Amino acid sequence: MAGGAALAAAEPVAALVRPQTAPLTVVGGAAIDRAPTPVKEWAIRTFGTDDKPMLQLGIVAVLLILACALGVVAVRHRRAGSAGVLLIGLVGAAAALTRPDAAGLLDALPSLVAAVVGALVLYWLSGLAARDRAADVVVAAPTDEAAPAATPRNPLARRPFLLAVGGTAVGSVAIGALGRGLAGSRGSGARASREALTLPAPASPAPPVPKGTRLRIPGVSPFRTPNSDFYRVDTALVVPEVDAGTWRLRLHGKGVSRPVTFTLDDLLGRDLIERDITLTCVSNEVGGPYAGNARWLGVPLATLLREAGVRPPQKGGPADQLVARSVDGMTIGTPVDDVMDGRDALLAVGMNGQPLPFAHGFPVRMVVPGLFGYVSACKWLTDLELTTFDAYDPYWVKRKWARRAPIKTQARIDTPKPFAHPKTGTVMVAGVAWAQHRGIDKVEIRVDDGPWEAAELAAEDSRDTWRQWSYAWRATKGGHNLTVRATDRTGDVQTAQRAGTFPDGASGRHTVVVTVD
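and the corresponding structure tokens:
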């Protein structure tokens, strides 16, 4: 009861300070930051996009165990139990103050309030429990055999303790609901600003998707991924809801002749370009789901940099790294050469014809074709700094991921699914292949240990998007292994060498096992 009261009391305080300062959120964020890379990869591989709810559920389970233990202690040693609650609250406060997006001492307030409320409630309830236990002593009877053996206590003697427990439970639920309501209303301005946003027409529209780009084969990934289905991998336990009216982007650093700050209206008033671009996460296992293709609308990033006086290193510029910072404190480093080499690197404001969803970076995010997201795709963007790789290590590099991470050539079998039971005869094997900013030249299929056979490629939209493929397989009865490999436009054939996602992306060939009936 005391643990629940503590967490509930923190909710309205966090809503008034910042929703991201709630104890579960700051402790969860600290756990993500400090978790070893193998643990993070295991969580993403095991739970997928549910990794964050599972983390929070795990933290609640740990807190429940600690609360039960402190409750047992408090029944016998009231002060020791309450001191334990205070100590846990101080851990939460320390986590809040050391978060990358910490805004000051007020960030510790929700955890401190939780600690004080939890300690006081535990001290109060444990006192009532001790009094209740003392009243449980039975009165011994005289030795006369005719007398009753003992006099039981009055059941109503428990009433103060039971009323206190019930009142604590009801009060905790009410206060927690109040806090959630306040947090929701706090984000109403950001949601209203997104709903009111009308995206301008692009000065450079995306070219029409060529005929034959989309295969009509059941089970194959659609050419363009709907926003609701687009993968999301980040460290934010609470999705930032940024008000477009107050949002600002600062551009500064080495080689910038004059630091400049942009509003969203500043960006929307420029010549926007629209492009279809496939994004891929470095956490994607071979054949994994963390790849998606969308139509992005945004400002060419290289144009902004050139206007600010920035030159790429190969032309004498002093900065070789562009560090992007998010409102939640995430830092992502991108090679300046890649941003300024002519590819369609964007400060994106739109996704598939709509303003960016909050989960995908509203109001502005980065999109750089050909690079894994952890070195290019900063969401909830608020700061761009020109610096060098020697001078600064961004978030993932500090955790030993590679500084530079071009996307590897990959192909994936979407249908048939693993362990499927297709019928004998012609079975359509189909999927997608990608090698962003190089393009896919060929996809091949091998059945068991047979020869590699060329798959039929759908038409190519651009070298920055994935490409659908298909293969008509004459399936025979029994178990079979279907393996796919791709060749990109540089002649690089997808390697058979298996490697995990750390430190620069997985490699290997996707294989699906099926049984033909």
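(Above: one complete record from the training split.) The longest strand covers residues 478-488.
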